[in-house]
Amino acid sequence: MTLKPAKQKKTIVILGSFNPSIFQPRWMAKEGLIPNSEGESAQIDVLQQEFSGINFGTYQLVVTLDRFQLSTQHVPFYPVIRDLAIGIFRLLRHTPLTKLGINSEEHYQLKDSAEWHRFGHLVAPKEGIWDTLLLQPGMRSLTIEGLRPGDSGNGVARLTVAPVGDESMHTVAIGLNDEFQAQPAAREPLVADDIVTLLETNWELSEQLFRKSVAHLIGLATSR
Fold first, then answer.
1. Closest among 90, 95, 88 to 29, alpha carbons compared
2. What does the pLDDT look like over 28-71, one tens digit per residue?
3. What is the phi/psi pair of residue 207, to 5°?
4. pTM, to two decimals
5. Is the pLDDT of residue 86 over 70?
6. Which of 222, 39, 193, 5 is nearest to 108 (CA)?
7. Residue spans per domain, the chain
8. Cβ distance 94 to 132 under 8 Å?
């Protein structure tokens, strides 16, 4: 039986130089980035010169002086946050930016604690390594970093695996931090147009890599 995720999340992170106070729901609605109803119903958690936090119900926006983050735990709103980020930075096209992150995370509850432990031993073997140093060694987190297949090298992909809660939950989290940045030879920082292009070009490719990674890892966890 195919496992279904117990939790899903997608996050867009952009690093650069921002003015948090301009990121207001009514401004977004006025510019046609979100419906007027969302502009009126959005909850402003914090709105200061150095920090802006807005809850739109199905997705959230957090902006600091050097970080822009849109996230949602609702799969139908994945394209919504993508399109909102693209729309915002098409308007703010001269904003100096440095990096883009497309981050994905899903939680899966395995059959039982035995399957949970077996998966941990598969991805992070203990025998002959950690059990010579510690008693009852167990994986708390694992990160593998590398280049994407066929990528030109303008960033890295980081795959993470970690247990969720304790043994009684027998749940694992699988994540992908897909990072894109300026080419090493570039002398100028990325501007908003560059980020929009990177986001448009790599959104589906990042999702494909994540789906392939999840299928492989969960396959290892559930195979006998």
1. 88
2. 999 999 999 999 999 999 888 899 999 999 999 999 999 999 99
3. -65, -40
4. 0.93
5. yes
6. 5
7. 7-18+66-222
8. no
pLDDT score for 187: 52
Q: How far apart are CA 16 and CA 95, in angstroms?
A: 8
Helix (H) or strand (E) holding 80: helix 78-91
C-alpha angle 12/29/104, rounded to 5°? 15
Cβ 52 vs Cβ 46: under 8 Å: yes
How many CA atoms lie within 13 Å of 189's alpha carbon, on the beta-carbon side? Answer: 14
| Token pair recorded at residue 150 | 């066929």
For residue 117 the two structure tokens come to 């432990």
Quickly tell me which residue has 């995720």 as its tokens.
5
- Tokens for 65? 């002086």
**76 token code pair:** 């139908």
| Ramachandran category for residue 39: left, alpha or beta (phi over 0 → left; psi -120 to 50 → alpha) | alpha
Q: List the one residue out of 188, 181, 205, 190 whose CA is nearest residue 82.
A: 205
Place of tokens 């559930």: 222
- Residue 215: what are its φ and ψ, rounded to 5°? -60, -40
Task: Give the β-pairing of 67-72 and 155-164.
Answer: unpaired
Residues in the chain: 224
* Domain made up of 7-18+66-222: CATH architecture: 2-Layer Sandwich (3.30)
**Helix (H) / strand (E) containing 215:** helix 192-222
* The amino acid at 36: N
Give me 51's structure tokens: 């920090």
Give residue 174's identity as a one-letter amino acid code. I
